């Protein structure tokens, strides 16, 4: 968690970290800045000290609202530096980094650069940063310092995560009830006037409902039939909702403007349930339970949960990423992933993962089976956390029924 | 525009460009990929050829929907490479780049890396990319190839940009009408039941309205009184809307899920208009007209419009970024900016800009005056385009009245 940052920096022999971002929400910068509503600037954390925001003067009030110290470009002499650099804003940035590090009394040594930003610019600025006396800039690959810190959540984070879960659960209920208020006409889901309910209209309904809980859609999947057979197909807005077809509804909203996520998938069959779908749904439900049953105790390798599910699916005759890497049918992905201020974080629950599960993790578990050419795909997913007692407990609270009955 | 990419690559002696992105919407990758709904992967454009998407197999259908050629990681032998690299996903990525460039028959030479992604990872991968035989990877600073291409819009882009403008205009009208349906109680804007209208409730109304046009809020400003005096203060959701105070409403939505933007600001004073505000509003309105009057013809330096506005404000006795760099009162920012798939693009309309204005530009013009300690700030902004005839024409279509009358 955040309180681990200093030891994590010490282990990497970093005197400070500089966390950058672009104009949009940027998970790393947001994590360090207490969610300050800034669209530019840096967060600098000297080892042993609280993060400090270095921002555009137009955003100084937003930066201060975070409760952290904030310095503006102007305070650091931006205008003068720009003149000295003949209007070159990139070289001016390098000068600002130097002044900020000095102002924060960061001792000479290694400085880690982290965050999501314009790669093309950093590639060109690296040599100039390398010329700054006393500092040696580096990045990080694999499991980074921020990945490691973010894998476990403190109490304040869990409070926000639970609020996002509550809004998502309510949205699931509202969406089920909304579809259930329709009726079938020639196997098409229609409203009382006989107009078809399209995927696009349903998507708008979900987005509006999320807003009631100050959540925002980040690309939900509402894919039916053949589309549902491709795990990341988002679905086609002009299609009407059809009875007896699988609708994969994968919802992964976040706090509006950027923040914590929830991740849940349900597969619904409106009106009636073909036997073939019922059978496969039963298998996926059992796979979900197999994953839960494989949970043992904190410290357990995450891959063991996926391995149990792989054993189960392979035993039932389905291809998996272990038995047939590259297969586009059967079970084609990993079991889940950590989530937080980004939707995909560590730990990874793939069978090639070296990550271990720990108290304070927030993870998804999401087995599925995909057969696009047979016209269906199914997935079931909850977000769960490992609590203080070492139990794996769901944050998602919504039933897993597949048949969604319509109005008589 | 996009059709300029090949000559722009030739001018930089680039054999190909590789455009990366992170999981979220990424303007550069979206621009090259026709908005493919992918959350990972690369876009590679060989000079003289159409862009090709290299994606996660789970997203191959989404990638193909773009109309561009798509290759999956599995097609390139990802599983085998991962094994060869002992499970190191970063080194595997480097191997994938090599295979993808070979598959697309990119001749040896310079390859430009562009886009928004994890900087820490690229810093560490650069040396390995440098070892790929035959290819020399570089970034770009200052005005990049993508900046330059995106500065002018083709007909297909203009169609989308006009649709975003129409939805934004409709949202402005609906928001004005919504506030106007309220009445004043003790100088607080209240509904028919006498309950105060809060900034938070108004923000939710705007977000819901945007959804009706498939637009999404990317951080609108709804700041009143002192908050309005800080250009990027987003406003406080728990505050009730107050009569006789300036409400700066800066709306810059985009196509839902990522895409083209619109950018507009209105300053409204609900209920009644203090003389001091009326006077300053008149000055800002005149500054807006000064900017339009300074427009001459395509090829004109963008800074000339800002210089005209600086002359005007300075002549009227207000501090500006030219007369008092670093001032936090008066006119404290540049006149405007290009906008497209990102909210801030080139050309820059600052007085230090070297950019020229051209046919096909889409820009904002947004003069303002800020006095937080006097309890107000005002800004007026339209999005405009330079059309084929060389005229600077607004895409924003909403009146600029400041007094917003309430119900008797």
Q: In words, what does this structure look like?
A:
The first copy, chain A, folds into two domains: 2-149, Creatinase/prolidase N-terminal domain (Creatine Amidinohydrolase, Chain A, domain 1, 3-Layer(aba) Sandwich); 151-404, Creatine Amidinohydrolase (Alpha-Beta Complex), CATH 3.90.230.10. The longest helix of chain A has 26 residues, at 155-180. The first copy, chain A, is built from eleven helices and 21 strands. Chain A is of the alpha+beta class. In chain A, strand 3 (52-55), helix 3 and strand 4 form a beta-alpha-beta unit. Chain A has a six-stranded mixed beta sheet with strand order 4-3-2-1-5-6. The first copy, chain A, has a four-stranded mixed beta sheet with strand order 10-11-13-21. In chain A, strands 16-19-20 form a three-stranded antiparallel beta sheet. In chain A, helix 4 packs across helix 5, helix 8 (155-180) packs across helix 9 (199-212) and helix 10 (275-294) runs antiparallel to helix 11 (303-315). At the A-B interface, helix 3, helix 4, strand 5, helix 6 and helix 9 of A face helix 3, helix 4, strand 5, helix 6 and helix 9 of B. Strand 5 (109-118) of chain A pairs antiparallel with strand 5 of chain B, so a sheet runs across the interface.
